[in-house]
Amino acid sequence: MLRGNRKKYKVSNVETIIGQKTILHGDVLFSGGLHVEGAVKGNVIADDDPEAVLILGERGSIEGEVKAPHVLLNGSVTGDVHATVSAELSPRARVTGSVYYKMIEMAMGAEVNGNLVHLEEEKPPSLVKQELNNGMKPEIELRVKNS
Q1: Which are the contacts of 119, defined by CB distance < 8 A and separation ≥ 6?
Q2: Which end of the chain lies in a sparser environment, N or C, as judged by fewer CB atoms within 10 Å?
Q3: Is residue 147 assigned to a domain?
Q4: Do 72 and 44 contact (CB within 8 A), yes or no?
């Protein structure tokens, strides 16, 4: 598994908590850390913070799409999960929808009722330009005639 490469998320990184007895209707846009122990009936989306983390507790549920760099699930999600950096599904995680990820860790007992879709690493623009210059031939060749 990925235990050696995995970044540990401290509780201090969580700025927002949706408590066990809370039901939130509507979309949630967050930055930093969000811990959900209650229910969210709407999409949960991280802003442009590359370190943003969503933690869904054992009693938590989300009915909607999830988009965040780091996603740690131990509750239920009904909708697609987009983890742009890493996804961790704990033993009680239940996803009814597809999981899009670059790096994933699933514990025994976690369920995904949908597709697991690996996201390819994006190449930096300079590397793409270098590949074009080194390996590709143009479809049309122009020749200039000297007179």
Answers
A1: 84, 100, 101, 102
A2: C
A3: no
A4: no
Residues in a beta bridge with 112: 95
Whether residue 74 lies inside any domain: the answer is yes
Q: What is the pTM of this model?
A: 0.76
Whole-number Cα distances in Å, 70 to 23, 84, 85: 23, 7, 6
Three state DSSP letters for the chain: CCCCCCCCCCHHHCCEEECCCCEEECCEEECCEEEECCEEECCEEECCCCCCEEEECCCCEEECCEEEEEEEECCEEECCEEEEEEEEECCCCEEECCEEEEEEEECCCCEEECCEEECCCCCCHHHHHHHHHHHCCCCCCCCCCCC
Q: Which domain holds residue 33?
A: 11-120
What is the count of structural domains for the chain?
1
Express each pLDDT in 78-119 by its tens digit. Answer: 999 999 999 999 999 999 999 999 999 999 999 999 999 999
